[in-house]
Amino acid sequence: KKASIGVTGLAVMGRNLARNLARHGHTVALHNRSGERTRELVERFGSEGEFVPAYSAQEFVDALERPRQIVIMVKAGAPTDAVIEEFAPLLERGDVIVDAGNAHFADTRRREAALRERGLHFVGTGVSGGEEGALHGPSIMPGGSAESYASLGPLLEDIAAKVDGTPCCAHIGPDGAGHFVKMVHNGIEYADMQLIAESFDLLRGALGLEPAQIADVFRTWNTGRLDSYLIEITAEVLAHTDAATGKPFVDVVADAAEQKGTGRWTVQIGLDLGIPISGIAEATFARSLSGHTGLRAATRGLAGPERTPLTGAAAERFADDVEQALYASKVVAYAQGFNQIQAGSAEYDWNIDLGAVASLWRGGCIIRAKFLDDIRAAYEAEPALPTLLTSGDFRKAVEDAQDAWRSVVSTAVRLGIPTPGFSTALAYYDALRADRLPAALVQGQRDYFGAHTYRRVDREGVFHTEWATEARAERPA
Ligand code: 6PG
Predict the structure, then answer these.
(1) How many whole angstroms from 260 Cα to the centroid of ligand 1?
(2) Is the whole model's pTM more than 0.80, yes or no?
(3) pLDDT value at residue 224
(4) Which ranges of 100-176 does DSSP label H, i.e. alpha helix?
């Protein structure tokens, strides 16, 4: 029997995707650069479904029914190009190559265009949910042609997570759209993680709570509007005690956060598109700051305020205030991320349905959360929504939270607890709602030193002031 899909690259993500497909009744061809992994998969998991092991590229291609569908699950970058070049010459018109790795969407656009020339479909797809997700139901974000989705879509929808019976998988848009959306997912993931980490730091620094107590706070929050995978695992991590020392696990882990680069891409592309994704940017910078051990060692002695824990009514209120600040900051981070998707979609003509993106992030992925259903509803009601911040329920929630949000940020400033995520989110909120921004002064400065010109609030046209002359005469530029 021929296989309906093949997976090449059988490290844990590829292996789990293959097993997930087989468990759903699909016959899966298997291939890996070294045959050892292929053999091992069949030996250990062969009983889970129908696998067709292949020990050469030709054997793999021959094992597949047409149109052939090959999922590549290897490292992003050169290894992906190498595997594409290995298989493309063996394929026929109409066959589909799927890249399920974390590729940069610009690479995906390049590969898609090149393979289209050769009559092949190339589907760059985001897959989120880690190893467990890949096996039990990830969130899947495929790009590429609508034609390729017609054959591939049903298989992907089969293995995706389901929320209320709806698969967490939908065709995102042409060429790089899927990987773009996955990139922003990861950027939002960074922002969300940073905000949660700041909440922990605040509860500890301002209330003097122990990690295990803070775990309980997070558990409580997880029963409300913050209900999400990241809050849930945060409680688990905080409650964990290091076996070797008996200390809270979080106190024995080196405080230098690493990254594989998708957050950095999100920020770079945000700058290119001119979209202020300050929450994602601060989260990414916070990770890089944490890793600068030399810089941190050199500055450790710099003076700071006395860190006296809160007492009385302020202390009583504080955890609830942090919950509100976290919720409001999260809304800002997601609002910024969705605006980035909107901008990418416009720039590359992808026609991405933001409601559908929110819908497929409800389950399976790392940022899965109850409130993504509210985001889905907001975009379904108003697809061209300028920002989530003005959408009915979010607007009200953020406005209701603003007093607590301001109070938390000022407490952080007063006690010297760094909260770049909370602070930038609040600054974004205040800047957006401002009648006037000091950008007017920046324009004046630019005109002064560089004759860069400015517009006026009361007249059409572009102007320049002769700053060097006594008269400072203004003229149309
Ligand atoms: C996912 C994750 C996954 C990966 C991150 C980790 O959606 O399943 O985002 O893609 O674990 O890329 O990223 P960092 O190493 O950059 O934190």
Answers:
(1) 7
(2) yes
(3) 97
(4) 105-117, 130-136, 146-159
